[in-house]
Design goal:
Largest sheet: 5 strands, mixed
CATH architecture of the largest domain: 2-Layer Sandwich
Number of helices: 23
Shape: flat
Structural class: alpha+beta
C-alpha cells in the first residue's frame, strides 16, 4: 500500500495544469520536526529508565511521537489529515492535504503563482494551528519561492538541483528534480576499486532508486546478470571471475551516464489547449525478462502532439521455463495493472486507452472466454478482462515496440534507445497511420481438456432405497431365489452391463475392463459369477463360482452392513471371509473396512482416550555420564510392622532412594518419621554411594526439617570459621 501511494503521489506531482504566462509551479514543503511535532498520549509510548544515581527504576512516557515505531507513520499521516479537517479551511484544502501529502512531504502544482501561493499559504495556516510547521519551500518558479520565503522570513537561496534520496532534509520521494529545467533525473554513486561479490553487486544495483522505471532497460540488464551468477552457483561472498568483472566495470561506467538522463516533469503543459489525452501501454516479453511502459499522448487543438513517458516496470522471467505466449500474457497482466494504477492517480481526464502487444496469441486469449483455458491462463485473462476492455488491445510490430528495448538493449554510448525516453515515432503520427489491428482468431493453445461422458438411462429405474433388507430376511436373500435373484441380476446389469453383453454374445471382455483378471462367466441362473481354476473341486457350485457384486452399489453396502451386524461387529478379515462364502465383491476388503469405519458401534469401541503431551525432562534426568545416585530422589513408604522380640510389635518405615538417571533403587529402614532418623538413614546412604549432587523429595516434614538442620549446620560452621580467622589475623599483624 505504501509503494502504491508513493507512486500515486509521484503521478500527481507529474500532473501539471496549463500555465498562464508560462508559469509551471511545483511546490515541495517539508514539515519541521516531523514526528516530534505530534503529541502522544498513548501508554504504548512508555519505557523503563534506570537512574545511575539510584537503584530505582523509573517509568517514563514520551509526550511526542517516537521515530522508529511501527505505528508512527500512520499516526503522523492521520494526525495531519485530522488537523486539516479541524482547521475549517474548506473541503478543497483538506482534500489537497489528503491527496498531495506523504508523511511530512507536500507536493502540489498550480496554474499560476497567485493560485500556488494562495493554496500554500492556506495549507500552512491550517497545519500551523496544530503545531505542524513547514520547513522549506522549493519551486521551479522564483516568484513563488520569493513570495513564500518572504512570508516565512529570511531564507537561503536553494541549490540548482535537489537530490530526492535519503540524505539531507530536502526530499521529494526519492527522485532528483532539477527545478530550473523542470525535469526529473538521477544521481548515482558508483563503487571505487572494491571487490565485486554477489552481495555487493546486488546492493549496488538495488541502490539505483527508480520508482518511475525510467532506467528499466539499463537496470534490468544488471538484474539478469545477477540471476546468471546465482545459476552458476556463486555464493553471496564469492568474488566474480575476470569476464564478469569486465562486464560489471562496463556497466558501472555506463551507470554514470544516468546523470545525463532526464524526462520532463510536466505531463499536461498548456492544459487548456489539449484536445484529448490518451494512455498508451506497450509491453514485450523476450526470454530473459519482460517489461511494460506507459506513455501519455496529448493532442492539441493546433494539431501538435506531445508524448510523455509516465511509468515503466520490468520483471525477470521465472527460472522455470515458460513458453513465449505465457510470458507475453504476464506482460499483458503487468500492463493492465500499471495502467489501472496510473489512470486512478491522474486527475486530468483520459479519453482513451491503448494496450499494444506483438503477440497475436495473447490478443486472441483476451478476446475469448477465460474459463475455456487452463488455470494459469484463465486466472490472468480474467484479471485482464476486469481491468481493461477487449477493444483496447491493439497489435504493434516488434520493431515499433519501445518495450522491446528493455531486455535487448546493449551497454554502449547511450543508456537506452531514444524511443524509450521520448516515445515511439508512431504516436506522433495521426491515428490513421497507426499499425492496423490483426483479425481475431480462436486460440487453441492452453485449452482445457474436455472429457466426454456417455450416460445410458435405464428403461425402468429402480429405487434401491425402498429395498428392505435386515436380519430377518437375510437368510432367505442369500439363497438367491425368486425376487432376490432378480435384484442381484439388476445390480449386475447396472454395474457390469458391457461385460455381460460381451459374454452373452461370446465375445472377449474389453481390454479396459476391471473384471478381466477374474475370468467371469455367466451361470445357469443368468448371474455373472467368478471364474477360476477350481472347477474340479468338491465344493458346492456357489462356493466355487460365487456371484460378482460391485463395490460401490447400495445393494452391496446393505448386504455387508447386515452381515457385519450379524457377526457382532467382527474384524475386517473375519467379515470379509464370511462374505466370500456367498458373494465375490470387487475390492471387498475395502468395502468391509468402509462399513466398519462408518459403523457407530465400532467407532465407539475404537475410541482412544485423550493423552496429555509430556514436557521435556529436566537436565539432571539426562546426565548420562555421571555415577549412579549422583542425582537422587527419596521418599518413605510404610509403616511396616516388625517384631524385635516376643509379644512386641513396632512400626518401622522404608526409605526408598532412586537414581534419577539409571533408575537404580536402594532401600533403607528408618525407625520413625522424624528428621533425626532420616539424617541417620541419609548418612548410611552416603557412606555406601558417596555424596549426591542433588536430592529431590516432596515436602514431607521429616525432609523439610532435615534440610533446615543441614543448612543451620553449614551456616554455623561458616560463622565459626570467621570467628577463628579474625583473632588469628590480629596475631599475625
Amino acid at each position: 500500500m505504501a509503494q502504491q501511494r508513493l507512486r500515486g503521489l509521484l503521478k500527481r506531482f507529474d500532473r501539471d495544469p496549463a500555465f498562464e504566462t508560462d508559469y509551471r509551479v511545483a511546490m515541495k514543503k517539508t514539515i519541521d520536526k516531523g514526528y516530534a511535532s505530534i503529541h502522544s498520549e498513548e501508554e504504548a509510548a512508555c519505557f523503563l529508565w534506570q537512574d545511575p544515581a539510584a537503584s530505582k527504576t523509573l517509568v517514563c512516557r514520551m509526550n511526542r511521537l517516537p521515530f522508529g515505531a511501527t505505528c508512527s507513520p500512520f499516526i503522523a499521516i492521520h494526525t495531519t489529515r485530522w488537523a486539516a479537517m479541524d482547521a475549517e479551511v474548506g473541503e478543497e484544502i483538506a482534500n489537497a492535504v489528503k491527496t498531495k501529502m506523504y508523511v511530512d512531504d507536500y507536493l502540489g502544482s498550480a496554474t499560476t503563482v497567485d493560485e500556488a501561493v494562495k493554496e500554500a499559504a492556506t495549507v500552512r495556516k491550517a497545519l500551523a494551528a496544530a503545531d505542524l510547521h513547514f520547513q522549506k519551500w522549493i519551486s521551479n518558479s522564483v516568484d513563488f519561492v520569493r513570495e513564500m520565503h518572504g512570508r516565512d522570513g529570511p531564507s537561503v537561496c536553494p541549490p540548482s538541483d535537489l537530490q530526492l534520496a535519503d540524505s539531507g532534509s530536502e526530499k521529494v520521494l526519492g527522485v532528483v528534480w532539477n527545478f530550473r529545467d523542470d525535469t526529473l533525473g538521477f544521481r548515482v554513486n558508483c563503487p571505487q576499486d572494491e571487490e565485486y561479490t554477489r552481495i555487493s553487486l546486488t546492493s549496488k544495483v538495488a541502490s539505483v532508486f527508480d520508482p518511475l522505471g525510467i532506467a528499466a532497460p539499463f537496470v534490468v540488464k544488471a538484474k539478469i546478470r545477477l540471476q546468471e551468477l546465482g545459476i552458476k552457483g556463486l555464493n553471496w561472498s564469492d568474488p566474480v571471475d575476470e569476464n564478469d568483472r569486465a562486464w560489471w566495470d562496463s556497466w558501472f561506467t555506463s551507470l554514470r551516464e544516468l546523470v545525463r538522463v532526464s524526462i520532463p516533469r510536466c505531463l499536461f503543459s498548456e492544459q487548456s489547449e489539449i484536445g484529448n489525452s490518451q494512455l498508451h501501454v506497450f509491453g514485450d516479453a523476450p526470454e530473459e525478462a519482460y517489461a511494460a511502459v506507459v506513455y501519455l499522448r496529448n493532442a492539441y487543438r493546433s494539431g501538435s502532439v506531445q508524448v510523455r513517458m509516465v511509468k515503466a516496470s520490468s520483471k525477470l522471467a521465472p527460472k522455470k521455463t515458460l513458453s513465449v505466449p505465457m510470458l507475453e500474457l504476464n506482460v499483458a497482466l503487468l500492463s493492465s495493472r500499471i495502467a489501472a494504477a496510473i489512470h486512478s492517480s491522474l486527475t486530468h481526464p483520459i479519453q482513451r486507452r491503448f494496450f499494444w502487444t506483438d503477440s497475436s496469441t495473447v490478443r486472441n486469449w483476451i478476446r475469448a472466454t477465460a474459463s475455456f483455458y487452463q488455470v494459469f491462463v484463465s486466472n490472468r485473462i480474467g484479471e485482464i478482462q476486469t481491468l481493461t476492455e477487449t477493444e483496447e488491445w491493439r497489435f504493434v510490430p516488434g520493431r515499433q515496440n519501445p518495450a522491446d528495448a528493455t531486455p535487448r538493449c546493449s551497454i554502449g554510448d547511450r543508456v537506452f534507445p531514444k524511443s524509450w525516453q521520448d516515445g515511439p515515432e508512431v504516436l506522433f503520427k495521426a491515428e490513421s497511420e497507426w499499425p492496423q489491428d490483426l483479425p481475431w482468431m480462436a486460440a487453441t493453445l492452453e485449452l482445457k481438456h474436455i472429457k466426454q461422458y456417455h450416460v445410458r438411462a435405464a428403461s425402468d429405474p429402480f429405487d434401491w432405497s425402498e429395498f428392505q433388507l435386515d436380519k430377518t430376511n437375510l437368510s432367505s436373500f442369500l439363497k438367491l431365489e425368486g425376487d432376490a435373484l432378480e435384484l442381484v441380476k439388476r445390480c449386475q446389469m447396472e454395474a457390469f452391463f458391457d461385460e455381460i453383453q460381451s459374454l452373452q454374445r461370446g465375445k472377449p471382455l474389453p481390454s479396459a475392463s476391471h473384471l478381466l483378471s477374474l475370468s467371469p462367466t455367466i451361470g445357469e441362473d443368468g448371474l455373472l459369477r467368478l471364474g477360476g481354476r477350481i472347477e474340479r473341486s468338491k465344493l458346492p457350485y456357489d462356493n466355487r463360482h460365487p456371484p460378482l457384486l460391485p463395490n460401490k452399489h447400495p445393494l452391496t453396502e446393505k448386504i455387508v452392513k447386515i452381515v457385519h451386524e450379524e457377526m457382532h461387529h467382527a474384524g475386517t478379515d473375519y467379515l470379509f471371509a464370511k462374505l466370500c462364502q456367498h458373494f465375490w465383491i470387487i475390492r471387498g476388503r475395502e468395502v468391509a473396512k468402509k462399513i466398519r469405519r462408518l459403523c457407530p458401534s465400532c467407532i465407539r469401541e475404537r475410541a482412544v482416550p485423550a493423552a496429555q503431551m509430556m514436557g521435556d525432562l529436566p537436565a539432571f534426568r539426562l546426565n548420562s555420564f555421571s555415577p549412579p545416585f549422583t542425582h537422587t530422589a527419596v521418599d518413605y513408604f510404610g509403616p511396616l510392622k516388625t517384631s524385635p522380640g516376643r509379644n512386641r510389635v513396632l512400626k518401622r518405615y522404608g526409605a526408598l532412594f532412586t537414581c534419577l538417571v539409571t533408575r537404580a533403587v536402594h532401600l533403607e529402614l528408618a525407625e520413625s518419621l522424624s528428621s533425626e532418623d532420616f539424617l541417620l538413614v541419609f548418612r548410611r546412604f552416603i557412606g555406601l554411594f558417596g555424596k549426591p549432587a542433588s536430592v529431590h523429595s516432596d515436602n514431607g516434614t521429616n525432609f523439610v526439617g532435615a534440610e533446615r538442620e543441614l543448612n543451620d549446620l553449614v551456616q554455623n560452621r561458616r560463622n565459626f570459621s570467621r570467628a577463628v580467622k579474625s583473632p588469628l589475623n590480629k596475631v599475625g599483624d
